[in-house]
Fold this protein.
Amino acid sequence: MAQRILVVDDDKQIARLVQSYLEKAGYTILTAYDGEDAMRVIRRERPDLIVLDLMLPKRDGYEITKWLRADQALSATPILMLTARVEDGDKILGLELGADDYLTKPFNPREVVARVRAILRRTTATPSAPHVLLVGDLQLDVDRHTVMMGERAIETTPTEFTLLRILMENPNRAFTRGELIEKALGYSYEGMERTLDTHIKNLRKKIEDDPSDPQYIETVFGVGYRLREDEAKR
């Protein structure tokens, strides 16, 4: 069965353009043109991914993202934000609220297809064993798609989960930003480092006792990041 994608944009011409390219790529497309209609479709249809504009009537994309991530039944749904807002602050806010990726208008429709494929590939892939990863008090269950810090459940976006899995599969290995972008996001392009840094910042807020002094995800200056197995066990 083809994966189902919800395209949300109040500009029907843009929505039709994105729909056309995604359908040619083999996906089944649902559409919504305002925030409230989008929420109804999400509840009813449970799409595999949402391409979400930010500037929408009734409920904007930020509100929808916050609502989606707060709903346990829907929180794992990947989100690709597609918007005319180009400021770094807007991008970072979208990622901090739980978006998996971000594209600004004007855009190349082929790039939308590439991003969608990459997100779905990393969120639906079946990783190799081991299926439960443990570093210190941090536990990641690949099959159940859950993260625990001791007895506390940690809610992650699909992209955060993939990043954490890669780091936990390779404790104490220093990854360059480029390596993490390629392995976790599935593609690379200029300016992606800022997006990666925001995802890492979000993960630290969720798993670290003190995000300003991380005991798990360490910045390796001049290189990138690593998950410190030895320090995490202190």
In short: The two ends are 47 Å apart (CA to CA). The chain has nine helices and twelve strands. The first strand starts at residue 4 and ends at 8.
